[in-house]
Amino acid sequence: MGRAVRKTNGKKYIELSVEIIRLNLNAPNFLDKIRDTILHEWAHALDWEKSKGWGHGATWRLWMATLGRPANRCFDSKLWMVKPNKCQYAIRHDNGRIYQYFRNGPTDDQIKAAKTWATALRLPNDQLALVSLDHGWTRQL
Fold first, then answer.
1. What is the Cα–Cα distance from 28 to 19, expressed in whole angstroms?
2. Chain segment 53-69, per-residue pLDDT in tens
3. Does 137 or 128 have the greater pLDDT score?
4. What is the mean pLDDT of the chain?
5. Which comes out higher in pLDDT, residue 52 or 135?
6. How far apart are CA 19 and CA 78, in angstroms?
7. What angle is formed at CA 46 by the lines to CA 42 and CA 50, rounded to 5 degrees?
């Protein structure tokens, strides 16, 4: 639902995924999950600033304990989509599986290939969607 980012130029920030938030709006305890996500990412930032730790290691878990939160994931990871550099779109199945990422929108041939992929995996074709990674919209294919 979120991530802590550190750039080679020294810039650091925390961001939340608009798409995952949208998908989880009706989840039980939604606001608690948002709070836990922000604290989870904040622990990553503190871990990096204080000990150059990164990931979910021992020092990160200590920061989570200091913040009074359990050291665990706050969301259903099948919904998480890591965005490759400069990619703006992805074709995703409703079950969360990613077919392919695209810098520009997919061509008709690429959409046809995605439907073939879904059929080969015995996934219903009507559950394929084009996802805008930058703008948070989803369109069924």
1. 17
2. 877 889 999 999 999 99
3. 128
4. 79
5. 52
6. 13
7. 175
Work out the average pLDDT over 98-110. Answer: 83
- DSSP string spanning the chain? -EEEEE-TTS-EEEEE-HHHHHHTTTSTTHHHHHHHHHHHHHHHHHHHHHH---SSSHHHHHHHHHTT--SS--S-GGG-----TT--EEEEETTS-EEEEESSPPPHHHHHHHHHHHHHTT--GGGEEEEETTT--EEE-
Q: How far apart are CA 5 and CA 69, in angstroms?
A: 21
Residue 78 to residues 93, 94, 95, Cα–Cα distance (Å): 11, 10, 7
Pick from 68, 5, 73: nearest CA to 33: 73
Dihedral (Cα; 87, 105, 120, 80), 10-degree rounding: 40
- What is the domain partition of the chain in residue ranges? 2-77, 81-140
CA–CA dist 50, 88 (Å, integer) = 34
pLDDT at 64: 93
What does residue 24 show for φ and ψ, rounded to 5 degrees? -110, 10
> What is the pLDDT at residue 78?
47
41 pLDDT more than 80: yes
